[in-house]
Amino acid sequence: EVTIKDLKLGAELSKSVATALGEIGGREAADTLLKALPAARPDIKDSIAAGLMKTAAEMSAAGDAAASARIYETLLAEKISPPLRLAAWRGRFASAGDKTAALVLETLAGPDPLAREAAIGAIPSAFNAASIGDVAVLFSRLPAESQVQLLSVLSDYPKGRILPTILQATGSDLKDVRIAALNALQKAGDA
Stretch 100-114: mean pLDDT, rounded? Predict the structure, then answer.
């Protein structure tokens, strides 16, 4: 079995091979890319990660969310560029199935700002009007940037479920949070 590393290719050719494997897709391509990822040089790692994300998305679309989730988890354990890290988090949430809500709540409590951004983006698909309170209670524990992002998402929910959180945010010491709260209040129809 030949790996990308065994081929001893230059950086540009290694990137091209990783891209091509991602386009080819399938389990064998994913396995080859996964083997190459840990030892890859930083200038090649992002190309391998991008190829893996294509194979993970393909697997998820084909109904193999578990394999897709494993690929995203592997990517998140590696040092990849912030845009690819954000994309990997988004893919991880998309492949979490019925565990998405729990993963969102766990991630919102974590230290990674890119992970929180992706978690906030996953809220509409993971929480309905009856369960959005589980997210709203975390609002005051989030950093300002995440509070602003969350207010934008919350404003799409029924006013009765999110109004206390939005009203709390209007009293924030932080200007950006107050502005986002007023925008959310207006969108919720109570300005």
Answer: 96
